[in-house]
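explain this:

___
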Amino acid sequence: MNSGSKKKPTLTFLSWNVNGFTQKKSSVFAHLNFLQADVVFLQETHIGPGPSSPSGSIQIQGLENDYDWAVYTVFKRNCRGVAILFRKGLGCEGLRVVGDEKGRYMIISCRIQEKEFVFVNVYNPTDEKIDFNKLRDSLIPASESAYFVMGGDFNTVMDAEVDKTSNNRNRGHRDRFRGLSSFLETFSLVDVWRWLYPEEKNFTYFDGKGKSRLDYFFLPVRSLTSVTACQIHNRPQHLERQGCISDHAPISVQIQTGGLRRWFRSGLLKDEGIVEGLSNMIRNISSAKQVRIEDLWPALKIRVICETLALNKSGDDFRSPRHLAGVQSSQVRHERQPKEQECR
């Protein structure tokens, strides 16, 4: 919807189940502005019908903060709902939207910085799961060169051994997992965070029974070499009161869409601490049970690049989310900003 914006060599996409938006939007926007994502997928927005926005409709609304406009579903005020927000000056054109009338997913096709994108934002509820065959048929046709980005809260774990702490059964997990797995296989989509971090345990959902990783970004195999960062963030706290904004943590992925490809900087090998850290990382990845042999080398190369980019202190414009978090935290120490420490 904008043109003439300055092109960015990398774009950051963020997904967050906010567990209700209207009553906490100031805290949500404050944290989104802090994280500086270009395109944001929100789930469980809980936006109900109004005089000009009937249930089951898709609405487009201009915004007055760091985000130019939002596309969102209308369903009920107490459940479901998804939205996609676009940052000011992004230069988004040719918008096409398909949405689920029950507020479970949205598909957007558009052009950003002369590149074609297809975004799929998913909230898969426990009470009325998504038919992934229907979702597949709803996908907007796009060229092979398009960037396909699928993210959201899928309400199921990919691997029960490492993606949750509770032994309690996830109601409906088997059906949700089966449908999702078939969809991922059809489109050759990969769980980006697990692909990069097969040796780590981290979680996106927190309740009294335990922690789980239910929120994901999936990218096609062909796009994985464009990834420059993927991060599960801490759960942010409210600005004006105690407590977390949501029972979910945001997750982000950063993709390079232009400019010179960033490679490993051999000069970093002069630092013994960096060499030791990379060596430990490689050993841990190699011994991880979840890593597939065919993924080991491709994922390891991208992981090393991501980790070394996070160490970039040369002063150019690029920063990975891991490094950004450290830089921003030090810059805003005395300002009124969202709290970055993990909620307890």
